[in-house]
Specification:
The complex is a heterotrimer of chains A (about 500), B (about 350) and C (about 325).
Chain A lengths: L10 E10 L2 E11 L4 E5 L6 H9 L6 E6 L2 E2 L5 H6 L2 E4 L11 H5 L14 H15 L14 H13 L5 E5 L7 H16 L3 E5 L3 H7 L2 E6 L2 E7 L5 H9 L1 H13 L8 E10 L3 E9 L2 E7 L5 H8 L7 E6 L2 E3 L4 H6 L2 E4 L3 H5 L6 H6 L7 E2 L2 E2 L1 H15 L15 H13 L5 E5 L7 H16 L3 E5 L3 H7 L2 E6 L2 E7 L5 H11 L1
Parallel strand pairs in A: 3-8, 3-9, 6-7, 7-8, 13-20, 13-21, 16-19, 19-20
Antiparallel strand pairs in A: 1-2, 1-4, 4-5, 9-10, 11-12, 11-14, 14-15, 17-18, 21-22
Chain B lengths: L2 H27 L20 E7 L4 H14 L5 E7 L4 H14 L3 E4 L8 H9 L4 E4 L9 E5 L1 H15 L4 E7 L5 H17 L3 E8 L4 H14 L3 E6 L2 H13 L7 E3 L5 H8 L5 E4 L2 H15 L13 E5 L2 E4 L13
Parallel strand pairs in B: 1-2, 1-3, 3-4, 4-5, 5-11, 6-7, 6-8, 8-9
Antiparallel strand pairs in B: 10-12
Chain C lengths: L7 H17 L6 H26 L7 H18 L4 H24 L5 H19 L1 H4 L11 H4 L4 E2 L1 H5 L10 E2 H19 L1 H11 L1 H6 L4 H27 L10 H11 L12 H19 L4 H29 L4
Antiparallel strand pairs in C: 1-2
Helix pairs in contact in C: 1-14, 2-9, 2-12, 2-13, 2-14, 3-4, 3-5, 3-12, 4-5, 4-12, 9-10, 10-12, 13-14, 13-15
């Protein structure tokens, strides 16, 4: 089908290395894609997948390494250079300009121009229509992209990439928030492109997809390539083992087997029929004292929105919440805090910490009421409490006056946790508590959470990290497209069975 | 100079002023060109109701007192609607208000221009529409119907003399000045400097700095001046607010009685300060009276006998004044205080 | 450009307000009043049109009023102190404005300051610059000398459209000020730039989705600097007409003009969320504010009440903008 003469690789990366400060995110990675090849790039969170994609799109310049596109060395770190060479990318999040028409979005950043810099509209339209016809996609070119439904917007992104006449197409979790019918559509498009000789790098969490659509796979772990295989030559179990590491896989298993239920049986938080129009619906949760309930699922399954709504950040359109059997209506975070609910948000910089304030002030923020003395605050009492917490959380450096922004990510996260633990809320919710946290701090955070659980706290963790879910969860819920599909005891789960469940739910 | 002479001077001034108004009015109106056709069509009903407005610079004691004086005269005539408009310290706003009044066919516009040049085109436009413009205190570079101003130059000369007398004819003085761009700043400053030259050539002006008409700003500026000139014997504030700012500094540094401080305008607060023995003196002008004079001229002009375009040369009226000091301040009656 | 914000409701509202004052305020619909509206608010409209560009990038330019004063003073100095001929002063003034604006862009892009902070800082700096270069302070007698250069004063010219069309005997048409003609030309050119050039498309892309634009290979830095430079150049153009109108420049020129300009731009449908707007809209927005202010003055409403009204209108426009943004966010994808 493809002449042998052009069967040289469309893109080759050699020795790609990315170092941020003390952390090596990507370590001497080689990657190669042939024309008409669909290569999966898989790995757990923090393995370096997104960094590799960013290097290939020109969004970041690597510390070391080279990239060749169709045999020609390219200048790295320039998006326009990569686009010019025919490397296109479909990102996880939207990269459309919402107010511009579909037509303008397809040609974003490279509109054909005539004299005086005027955009050559007839030519643009002609090319776009040819493109639509070629790929059998139907879309109104003149509506603003922002007014389209999500699926159509994804199609515009794909068109944008196709319009480049791309030789290489990078797809970063492209099915992240598509319904299954649309996933099938997308896969059909990928097969068509493959037939046209485009080389595709397919980044996904979902092994089902990988096994359905990809020819080969590259597995990353801790910034290194741990395996390169033809998909046909590898089993799912083996792939997972390679992704998370044999040792960790064993540990996870061990941890889940060693788990003893500490559930006291008393339901702290009981939610029924929670719904927010167009976001999630029909969610029932029973969160017990002395347990960690993990909710996992794909990005875009609305887990974050769910916990934010329980915490009162966003309004609920339907449903009821009871705490210790008493119905309450939480309309704001302060009411949630008063009811004993704490939330550690996903973006700790934006939503959780006051970076310019000291460790002590951050720790005491949610519970300042305890230190009120008339109109003033009991500074001495606050300092004592802060020192005690810093010691118990093992925050480094152990100084209560240090500004939080000067701490490492892991220590910041510990401070954020401490903020709630010291208030001893009956109920603590955490959203992706270990994203951007190094391995050592991760283990400490797990220990802190387990200790809190053992003291009787009811903990709800939202996490996309399968290992994490299996390591700390007593029960695991799977969420998909705004519904809590199922809840399972963690003991009964393995990494692969959980991945399968997530894949099936989607 | 005895107290009696002061009083006589003041009364003489008032009489002279009134006479001047009469003379000016007579001079203005003798120019009447009965044959010049009336331009602009006045709407029906406008003949029996006349609109007059005063565009002030920004809210301040002086324009407020003018407005009160103007209103006093105009309200006796039931056919006149009078309005006070605020220029918000922006020339653009004053220009836009001028245009709105021209469009409304105002009979007379009273104007305290922020800038002598910037308002000139608007005044020319009013003249084309046959609307007389009467300026208060700050003249414009475009000739117009009448200008009623405090006697800035000669008043400042007299201030220089009185200030020098109290300093014993020698020493150093500082001027707290207005920002440039306004005629009265130059008139007052020049009058003061010329007065010193004439009466007290041994007194030196060691500092002349801008304090934006403002009491607070004047405090800061004078504090700085005092650092550089510790032997300062006198301060002239180009308006009372700045002079009172100087008084604040003198009080704080225990210089009351040692430093001679003169202001200009003669507002109520300044007169009280003089009575308390803090401010040495100021040039007092009966600003109510100034407003009344302007209003009197306006009612004559509003008869429409003279088209505004007829004013090649404007009538000018200098207000009489009194150098108010502890000795003379009692002459100013409560009703004359503003 | 078929954005989610059409200018039709704005035009409708403008007509409604205009009709309201025509019936309630005497002399509102007179030729003179419309002339006043055109000459008094064309310069506000120029500032608003320029302001649209930074706002389209989700930025803001607080320094436009100060740029007006700087450019005004440059014109004053060049003409009265240095005797530079007007035909040379005009391009120099426009360049100075563009440079002052470009500096804002540089601070935003390369020093990575928030646009609000960057332009607040330059607002203060440019105001200081005005005082230090003020020819009125350097040569005091110039403060009572009007500008006479025909190239500059000539900008304050009116066209008698009625006579030109030969219908002045039938209806009294307002004379059209040159500043309004210049505004129309400015709007036409910038609207073309916005909707039909590569730069215009890039501007919407950067404003609508900064990261997306960067990844599409758009030179975000260049687009940003250019947008602020356009805002500065528009301020310079406004300054020229203002100086021509006043026949002088003062240090306090344009104080507070930035707020009016921002208000007009927002009322004119430029979204503070970035990426949505036109240049026609802000121009209409400026005249809408003008109609309301002049109308209220003619009705004899106190100026302080007028300022409150301006605030209320601005709040209403911003709320409407937020409402549209929220509605789109609810309908659109969320991750």
């Amino acid at each position: 089908m493809i002449p042998a003469a052009i069967r040289e690789p469309v893109i080759v990366g050699r020795g790609l290395t990315q170092v941020y400060g003390a952390a090596t995110v990507l370590d001497d990675v080689d990657i190669r894609i042939d024309p008409g090849e669909v290569r999966a790039l898989i790995g757990s969170n923090g393995a370096g997948k997104s960094t590799l994609v960013k290097i290939l799109t020109g969004a970041v310049r690597p510390t070391a390494g080279t990239v060749e596109v169709v045999g020609q060395q390219v200048h790295l770190g320039s998006p326009s250079e990569m686009i010019g060479r025919g490397v296109a990318c479909i990102y996880q999040h939207s990269n459309l300009a919402p107010a511009l028409s579909v037509l303008d979005n397809i040609f974003l950043g490279r509109n054909p121009t005539r004299r005086l810099g005027l955009v050559d509209r007839p030519r643009q339209r002609r090319e776009a229509q040819a493109l639509l016809a070629r790929h059998g996609i139907q879309i109104d070119l003149d509506v603003p992209a922002g007014s389209l439904p999500a699926v159509k917007q994804k199609e515009v992104e794909i068109l944008k990439a196709l319009a480049l006449d791309a030789k290489v197409l990078l797809m970063d979790e492209p099915t992240g928030w598509l319904a299954s019918a649309d996933v099938a559509n997308l896969h059909a498009t990928i097969r068509k492109l493959k037939g046209q000789g485009v080389g595709i790098l397919y980044i996904s969490h979902m092994l089902d997809e990988v096994f359905a659509i990809c020819d080969t796979m590259t597995i990353l772990r801790d910034g290194r390539v741990v395996a390169e295989n033809a998909v046909a030559d590898i089993s799912r179990a083996r792939a997972i083992e390679l992704m998370i590491g044999r040792q960790l896989a064993a540990q996870t298993k061990e941890a889940s087997e060693a788990r003893v239920s500490r559930m006291t049986g008393s339901v702290r938080l009981k939610a029924r029929g929670l719904a927010r129009n167009g976001v999630f619906s029909g969610v029932d949760i029973d969160l017990n004292a002395g347990e960690i309930l993990c909710i996992t699922g794909l990005i875009g399954s609305k887990r974050t929105e769910l916990v934010r709504a329980i915490f009162g950040c966003e309004s609920l359109d339907a449903g009821s919440i009871e705490i210790d059997g008493a119905p309450i209506a939480v309309k704001s975070p302060s009411e949630a805090i008063a009811a004993g609910i704490g939330l550690v948000p996903e973006d700790r910089h934006r939503d959780g910490l006051m970076l310019g304030l000291s460790v002590s002030e951050n720790l005491m923020m949610a519970t300042l009421g305890r230190f009120r003395r008339g109109l003033l605050l009991d500074r001495g009492g606050m300092a004592t409490a802060a020192r005690r917490l810093i010691a118990s959380l093992n925050v480094k450096p152990a100084s209560e006056t240090r500004q939080v922004r000067l701490l490492s990510g892991g220590n910041q996260q510990k401070v954020l946790l401490g903020k709630w633990l010291d208030g001893r809320p009956g109920i603590l919710m955490l959203d992706e508590p270990t994203v951007g946290v190094d391995v050592g701090a991760k283990a400490e955070i797990y220990d802190i959470l387990r200790a809190a659980r053992d003291e009787g706290a009811a903990i709800l963790v939202v996490s996309s990290d399968i290992e994490e879910v299996l390591a700390i969860g007593d029960r695991v819920g799977v969420m998909s497209a705004g519904r809590l599909v199922s809840v399972h005891p963690a003991k009964a789960l393995t990494a692969s069975s959980l991945v399968t469940m997530i894949g099936e739910a989607a | 100079m005895t107290e009696l002479e002061h009083r006589r001077n003041f009364i003489k001034g008032v009489m002279l002023g009134s006479a001047a108004l009469g003379a000016a009015a007579a001079g203005m109106f003798s120019d009447t060109d009965a044959t010049s056709p009336k331009l602009g069509v006045r709407p029906a009903g406008a003949a029996d109701r006349k609109k007059m407005a005063f565009i002030q610079w920004q809210p301040h004691t002086v324009p407020a007192a003018w407005s009160k004086g103007i209103e006093e005269v105009l309200k006796t005539q039931q056919t006149i609607d009078y309005e006070l408009l605020d220029g918000q310290n922006k020339v653009e706003v004053q220009v836009s208000l001028m245009e709105a009044l021209i469009n409304q066919g105002a009979s007379v516009i009273f104007l305290q221009p922020i800038d002598s040049v910037a308002l000139a085109p608007s005044i020319a436009k009013a003249k084309r529409a046959d609307i007389p413009v009467i300026t208060l205190n700050i003249d414009a570079t475009e000739a117009h119907a009448a200008h009623v101003e405090m006697n800035h130059y000669y008043g400042a000369m007299d201030i220089a003399k009185a200030l020098g007398d109290r300093m014993g004819g020698k020493g150093e003085v500082a001027i707290l000045n207005a920002p440039p761009g306004i005629v009265i700043r130059d008139q007052r400053t020049n009058g003061f400097v010329d007065g010193l030259k004439q009466h007290h050539p041994d007194i030196k002006v060691v500092s002349d700095q801008v304090a934006d008409w403002d009491r607070k700003k004047a405090q800061d500026v004078l504090n700085t001046i005092l650092v550089a000139n510790p032997n300062l014997g006198g301060v002239y504030g180009v308006n009372d607010s700045m002079a009172l700012g100087a008084v604040d500094v003198a009080k704080e540094k225990g210089l009351i009685g040692k430093m001679v401080i003169f202001g200009n305008d003669g507002e109520k607060d300044a007169l009280e300060s003089i009575e308390k023995g803090e401010l040495t003196g100021t040039q007092y002008t009966d600003v109510y009276q100034q407003g009344r004079f302007a209003a009197a001229a306006a009612t004559v002009l509003a008869t429409g006998a003279v088209p505004a375009s007829a004013f090649g040369e404007q009538g000018r009226l200098l207000m009489p004044y009194l150098i108010a000091t502890k000795e003379t301040v009692g002459e100013i009656q409560p009703a004359q205080r503003w | 450009m078929a954005g989610r914000y059409s200018i039709l409701p704005l035009v409708g509202f403008f007509i409604l307000v205009f009709a309201f004052f025509s019936f309630t305020a005497t002399r509102f619909a007179s030729a003179t009043n419309i002339e006043n509206l055109l000459s008094g608010f064309s310069f506000v409209a120029m500032l608003a049109v320029g302001q649209a560009f930074p706002i389209l990038l989700r930025g803001i330019d607080l320094s436009v009023g100060a740029i007006v004063a700087v450019v005004g003073m440059i014109v004053f100095d060049l003409s009265l102190i240095f005797g530079v001929p007007g035909w040379l002063i005009l391009p120099v003034a426009l360049l100075a404005g563009a440079a002052a604006g470009a500096l804002n862009g540089v601070l935003v892009v390369y020093v990575r300051l928030q646009p609000f902070i960057a332009t607040l800082a330059t607002l203060a700096a440019y105001r200081g610059l005005v005082y230090s270069i003020s020819g009125r302070q350097l040569v005091p007698e110039l403060s009572t000398t009007p500008l006479r250069d025909p190239w500059i004063i000539g900008l304050e010219t009116y066209f008698d459209v009625g006579r030109f069309l030969g219908i002045s005997s039938i209806v009294k048409l307002p004379w059209i000020p040159l500043s309004f003609v210049a505004l129309l030309a400015l709007v036409a050119v910038l609207q073309l730039v916005l909707s039909a050039t590569r730069f215009g498309r890039d501007l919407f892309a950067v404003g609508g989705n900064l990261e997306g634009a960067r990844l599409a290979g758009i030179n975000v830095a260049r687009v940003t600097v250019a947008a602020y430079a356009i805002s500065g150049a528009c301020a310079a153009l406004a300054a020229l007409f203002l100086v021509a109108r006043l026949t002088t420049a003062t240090e306090a020129l344009g104080i507070g003009a930035e707020l009016t300009a921002i208000a007009a731009a927002v009322v004119g449908g430029v979204s503070l969320q970035g990426g949505v707007g036109t240049v026609v809209g802000p121009a209409i927005g400026a005249f809408l504010l003008g109609v309301i202010l002049l109308g209220l003055t003619l009705l004899g409403v106190s100026q302080f009440v007028q300022q409150i009204m301006t605030g209320v209108i601005l709040l209403a426009a911003i709320s409407y903008d937020r409402l549209l943004a929220l509605r789109v966010r609810r309908a659109g994808p969320s991750l």
